[in-house]
Amino acid sequence: MTDNNQKEVLLHVDNLVKHFPITQGIIIQKQVGAVHAVDGVSFDIYKGETLGLVGESGCGKSTTGRTILQLYRPTSGSVYFEGKDLVAMKGEELRKTRKRMQMIFQDPYASLNPRMTVGEIIGEPMVIHKTHSGKDLEDRVADLLNLVGLNPAFSNRYPHEFSGGQRQRIGVARALALDPSLIVCDEPISALDVSIQAQVVNLLEDLQAELGLTYLFIAHDLSMVRHISDRVAVMYLGIIVELTDRDQLYNNPLHPYTQALLSAVPIPDPYAEEKRQRIILEGDVPSPVNPPSGCRFRTRCPLATTICEQEKPEFREIKPGHFVACHLV
Amino acid sequence: MADLLKVQGLETQFQTREGTVHAVNGVSFNLKEGETLGIVGESGCGKSVTVMSMLRLIPTPPGEVVAGQAVYQGKDLLKMSNDEIRHIRGSQISMVFQDPMTSFNPVLTIGRQVAEPLEIHNGANRQQSAERAAEMLEMVGIPKAKDRLNDYPHQFSGGMRQRVMIAMSLICTPQVLIADEPTTALDVTIQAQIVELVKRLRDELGMAIIWITHDLGIIAGLADRVMVMYAGLVIEEAPVKELYANPQHPYTLGLLESLPRVDESRDRRLASIDGLPPVLMEKPEFCPFAPRCKYALDRCWNENPGLLPVDGNSEHRAACWVDPETGRERA
Questions:
Q1: Quick check: A1 contacting B, CB < 8 Å?
Q2: pTM of model > 0.95
Q3: How far is CA B211 from CA B41, B44, B46, B177, in A?
Q4: Domain chopping of chain A, boundaries
Q5: Please, are residues B121 and B87 in contact by the beta-carbon 8 Å criterion?
Q6: Which of A231, A244, B168, B246 has the least CB density, counted as fewest CB within 10 Å?
Q7: What's the sign of the alpha-carbon dihedral A183, A187, A189, A191?
Q8: Which residues of chain B does A197 touch, with a Cβ-Cβ cutoff of 8 Å?
Q9: Residue B1: its pLDDT value, please?
């Protein structure tokens, strides 16, 4: 890894907001509220790194990933990919840029069309973008299957003939078909068994080393995120509360939510478990329809004071490369 | 301490269109009073089917318990009349299920559902049982429990519903609580809440717990003894500290090495276990892990070892011919 200032920014996300409208009425629909799924997140992803995005369910991490890829159009904010604003793009220009960014989905059982063969699934992006055809396409599909550790002879089989881990490999091959530079991995291993998870994670790491890929790795498993990421962002209720280098975050978490989250992760070691002090948070995550005033975390924060209720904490750079949104740090 | 429950040679099969699936292939274990036993394994290894068989909750057909016994207080649960086992389920042995979203009846109030076991098993009347239900809800940490008795399940969050389910399972003060992946559907901070709650209740009420999970992390801080299952068999069994410090079966070793740790800063490549778990269309005649095992010897392909004591330690047993330290056959 090179120094911070030498790193090339691949993706720059600036104050990204995505609200989903809540409507009432059948024929005449009027908007009565909004789910504040993502409420102003800003971060950079450097070329060749893995940025981990963690948080509990409903915190907006998947929505962030999808909004970056313009699968959802953002309510406001901008996403600069290789220097160009994706939000301002449309039509053919966006379609062409999409080649360079791909996604791996969570559920390998639902994200592959059961009526298409594996070869058709992996070849489809290349057919759509007219990059390969005929024999050339077949060769490329075989290469991709080899690359993800599957037998090229499988290309005329159907998804149901494969196990979960193998299907996830097919999903990875499809994402690689157009030589992307950015891959958004949306919980790619959470549907898999432990012994299979390691296989898929190792594959992702090998591919990154070989092809120079950049990953946005979305997950709720903090142990796996520590293993795979260079930097980690922690989300809570639509905002990023802390963002820094992997080891800095895990060894020296500054935001009370990050601290509680890390202390809640079980460690597979009875001796370590005995010695641990857990921070047990009270209650549940509030509804994103009506997020709390001021700091989003104040309703569960053991340290909250009056300022947390009145003012929204700024997302500040406390130390070089260490961003935190908390009044008390 | 005395054995509360003793399971011997349990075998369960399912008839499917493709043939007979051998889900559980001779599981034996015992549970002592007040002990917490963890059952760990990946999906399809038979951990849930084992306890469901024991409580006769396997739908027949397609499932059938074909062999074994499960002795609770001197009586075999598998041979009891339906009436007898009904008096044990939910009152002396109760269960918490994985999915708090689908395990409740959506059209009955929480108060009714939590109180129901008490009315059925202890003959309490509505008022007594409602009072007790409120106490139980209070105990599991539902705020303003009395006011919430008339709420419906959808008015509770996932973590709260799991608390309610625990209250329901404990209302008759059972001797054994079986928790089948109770925190798998929950977020980590909520999971930590539930684990702390169960630990507290265990200390207060002193029941024995069987905790089924695929997460080796959770069980480390919770169980007294752990059983690892693979292909419908127990492949290793040991006190919790012994198992993590000195795993003896290559599968247990592989699972522990494939887990990243949140407190680990060094970069290493995760050790993965190649291949896939077997499809159990026939009863394993040799070691079911042999096809994925890097230590496998000729003997492993011919004979199934069964649980063997490790270093003469009767508490730590592993079903493996090979000593993973030397790679040679155990002396």
A1: no
A2: no
A3: 12, 16, 14, 8
A4: 7-48+59-90+226-324
A5: yes
A6: B246
A7: negative
A8: 258
A9: 67
Q: Per the CB < 8 Å rule, is A268 touching B244?
A: yes
Neighboring chain B residues of A285 at a CB cutoff of 8 Å:
187
CA–CA min distance B27, chain A (Å): 22
Task: Kindly report whether the peptide bond that precedes residue A291 is cis, defined as omega within 30 degrees of 0.
Answer: no
Q: Is A27 on the interface with B (CB under 8 A)?
A: no
Q: Which chain B positions have a beta carbon within 8 Å of A165's beta carbon?
A: 276
Q: pLDDT tens for residues B57-114?
A: 998 888 899 999 999 988 999 999 999 999 999 899 999 988 877 889 999 999 999 9
Q: Which residue of B has its CA nearest to A57?
A: B187
Q: Would you say the ipTM is above 0.95?
A: no
CB B201 within 8 A of CB B166: yes
Q: Which of A194, A199, A250 sits opposite B259 (nearest CB)?
A: A194
DSSP line for B278-316: PP-SS--SS-TTGGG-TT--GGGGT-----EEETTEEEE
Distances (CA, A) of A296 to A162, A255, B184: 43, 12, 26
Give, for all 329 residues of chain A, the pLDDT tens digit: 444 556 889 999 999 999 999 988 888 888 888 899 999 999 999 999 999 999 988 899 999 999 999 999 999 999 999 989 999 998 899 999 989 999 999 888 889 999 999 999 999 999 999 999 899 999 999 999 999 989 898 889 999 988 888 999 999 999 999 999 999 999 998 888 888 889 899 999 999 999 999 999 999 889 999 999 999 999 999 999 999 999 999 999 999 999 999 999 999 898 888 888 888 888 888 888 888 989 999 999 999 889 999 999 999 999 999 999 999 88
Say how far apart CA B331 and CA B325 lie, in whole Å.
Answer: 12
The percent helix, strand, coil of chain B (3-state, each to 5) is 30, 25, 40
Determine the distance in angstroms separating the CA of A192 from the nearest CA of chain B, rounded to an integer.
9
**Distances from the Cα of A304 to the Cαs of A298, A316, B298, in angstroms?**
5, 18, 63
Q: Is B226 on the interface with A (CB under 8 A)?
A: no
Do residues B172 and B117 lie in contact, with contact meaning Cβ atoms separated by under 8 Å? Answer: yes
Q: Pairing between strand A76-81 and A84-85?
A: antiparallel
- Cα distance from A63 to chain B (closest Cα, Å)? 18
Distance separating alpha carbons of residues B218 and B177, to the nearest angstrom:
17
CB atoms A247 and B265 under 8 Å: yes
Sequence-ordered list of residues with C-beta below 8 angstroms from that of B279, at least 6 positions apart, any chain? B21
Nearest partner of B114 among B157, B169, B174, B154, judged by Cα:
B169
